[in-house]
Amino acid sequence: MTYRSVYIIMLLMTVSSAVAAQQPGRVYPAIPAMDGEGAEVLRLFPGKFVKHADPFILLDDFTVSPPVGFPTHKHIGFEAITYMIEGSFVHKDNIGNNDTVYAGQAQRFTAGSGLLHSEMPGASAVNRGLQLWVNIPAAAKAAEPTYQLVETLPVESADSTRIVRTIAGKGSVLQVHCGCDLSYLDIQLKKNTIVLTPESGYTSFVYVLDGMVQIHEHVVYAGNFYFLESGVPNTIIGDGVPRFVYLSAKPLNQKIKQRGPYVY
């Protein structure tokens, strides 16, 4: 998102070959952090357990209310997707966009050579969402920035057992430029199970938003994430009415050099 705090800048000044950090079959906690001006986030990575997960650079679960937020700041060299879960967020940038992203909507910007923007809460109550940073090919880092707002996300399936919304990937109109075959789903289980089979060699994980799920012998509670084994079926068993996101993408296999909001 983000207008990096001093702590986060120090944390992120690293060069990583990315995919070596995560371990399939292990539950990791998202770590509380402060960002922007008084904003509280739960950060999956980069952090003490996982630096990067190629091509994924950062994932924040943010919950903010006025007056805190993310005033004007600059991004370089990656692509970001903001998905609102509750409330709304106001995005303004230096390429002419001024939009409010509401719950159930998604927004994407590709920073390329540089995007200057602000993100502030649009409602007086709780505003919760996810912001994902995805690396882009080295050749794309010098391109002009682009932006897209998606007001209606497709529902892949909605019945007595589950609701699956496609944020990015097959069936979504959200245009991504990572070249990484990104799949990004919001899944709510009402009962029964769902089986997810990531492509072989892909980086894939589940982050639980609400409730709890069981994956193989592991229980994953809200605020925790779990890397799935690629190329094989992974059965997700829900307890109650859990909600989680599933992300999967092909690694770019290029080093990630990150200094706060800049990725080279």
**What is the terminal-to-terminal distance?**
17 Å
Number of strands: 23
Outline the low-pLDDT stretches: 1-20
Strand content: over 45%
| Average predicted local confidence, pLDDT | 90
Structural class: mainly beta
* Fraction of residues in helix: under 10%
Major sheet: 9 strands, antiparallel
Q: What is the number of helices?
A: 1
Outline: globular
What's the helix-strand series? HEEEEEEEEEEEEEEEEEEEEEEE
Structural Rg: 17 Å
Write the layout of secondary structure elements.
Blueprint: H1 6-12, E1 14-16, E2 27-29, E3 31-35, E4 39-45, E5 56-64, E6 70-75, E7 78-86, E8 88-93, E9 98-102, E10 106-110, E11 115-121, E12 127-135, E13 146-150, E14 155-158, E15 162-168, E16 183-189, E17 193-196, E18 203-215, E19 218-221, E20 224-227, E21 234-249, E22 256-259, E23 262-263
Mind explaining what this structure looks like?
It is a single chain. The longest helix has 7 residues. The N terminus is likely disordered. The strands form four sheets. Strands 2, 14, 15, 16, 17, 18, 19, 20 and 21 form a nine-stranded antiparallel sheet that branches. The chain has 264 residues and is mostly beta strands. A hairpin with a 3-residue loop joins strand 3 and strand 4.
Provide a short characterization of the protein structure.
With 264 residues, this protein is mainly β. It has one helix and 23 strands. Strand 14 and strand 15 form a beta hairpin.
Key phrases:
single chain, 264 residues, mainly beta, 9-stranded antiparallel beta sheet, 23 strands, globular
